[in-house]
Amino acid sequence: MSSKVKRTYGSKKNVLVRSHSSTLSSSPTTESTSPQRKRPLQEQSNTDIGPPSKRAKTMRRTKENSREKGKQKALTQLHFCIDQTVLRTCPRCDLSYTKGAPDDESLHRTHCARIQKGMEWGREEERDMIKGGVVQVSTAVKLKDGRKGRIIYFRGDVGGKIGSKLTSLLETINLALSAPPLTPTILRESKAYLFLLPSVTPGREKIAGCVVAQRITTAMAIASARECEQACQSSPTPTATLIAVDADTGVFCHPTPLPTPLGIPRLFVPSAHRRQGIASHLLSAAAETFIHGCPLDPRKGQIAFTQPTGDGNAVMTSWGAGGVRIYEE
Ligand SMILES: CC(C)(COP(=O)(O)OP(=O)(O)OC[C@H]1O[C@@H](n2cnc3c(N)ncnc32)[C@H](O)[C@@H]1OP(=O)(O)O)[C@@H](O)C(=O)NCCC(=O)NCCS
Ligand SMILES: [Zn+2]
């Protein structure tokens, strides 16, 4: 048995590549070791490195070329070789992109707005509610700042306008978490729960949070601080008896798979809406309604997260009161 849980999210290398299918990835960047966020490590395609390589080519000039050009009378333009990086990492969304490349800048602007404020739930999605099998779990859910929103859910493999919206939303979440796309199999056994807040535009709403809930069979119990201590005392490393989930969060779990019905592979709240209780409300809604007529309780070990981020671990501990388990996606 492996002593480490396979990572749900990508490596922490801050490498972004514009992919053919994605509407939201950017150009390749240098590596960075941000301890907070997990950056995507996507499939790299040489053909996609547009603006930077183009620029390098125009900047490469030999001495001979320069002298020859100098003899020409109609010399009108000089090119300077400025060998400095144009990569920029946005402090608000943590995305690295090529500054000055119109495609990258535009991809970044879209991603940044979605990460901060969330995507819109518009009239088109609203019109498709019945066709998309959307269920409203609760209305007038009060947040800490007094605002009220509603919670809806629908199948993870929903089609139509709602399916397209979910695809874009999951692309943004995966890019933010450096996570791989959820497979069609996972989406088939999942429900997406959204928290919708009234937008400034009348009749429109913002998606202020998303939880994907998935049917699973087993998960592992998280070891308490005391159990980790005991594991360290009985052998030089705790991984002799426990599984290390993530070195950053310091989460270890017991290797025995235990029957667990509900998994949470994705959890995201845009930064402007955090610490209002949205993630907790969404998790409670999922626990309450995922299996019809059978409400689940995290304190009884009935819900599991995939490898959590630092923020995810904080919610997991707070909302799950120590009973949430860990599973591999
Ligand atoms: C994790 C995340 C979904 C939390 O959403 P949220 O709506 O802010 O969470 P809640 O408001 O329900 O938080 C409930 C409690 O969890 C704890 N908590 C949540 N975020 C925390 C943080 N950043 N630091 C410390 N504690 C935190 C607190 O105890 C909080 O209660 P409090 O605000 O009364 O102190 C959000 O921070 C996020 O989207 N982060 C980026 C994506 C991510 O890491 N997802 C998790 C993948 S496992
Ligand atoms: Zn940004």
Automatic annotation (TrEMBL):
Report domain N-acetyltransferase ESCO acetyl-transferase positions. Answer: 262-319
Signal peptide span per the entry?
A: none
- For the region Disordered, what residue ranges are annotated? 1-74
Q: Report the record's Gene Ontology biological process terms.
A: mitotic sister chromatid cohesion
Top-level lineage group? Eukaryota
Instruction: Report the subcellular localization.
Output: Nucleus
- Hey, which family's this protein in? Belongs to the acetyltransferase family. ECO subfamily.
Q: What is this protein called?
A: N-acetyltransferase ECO1
Q: Which gene encodes it?
A: ECO1
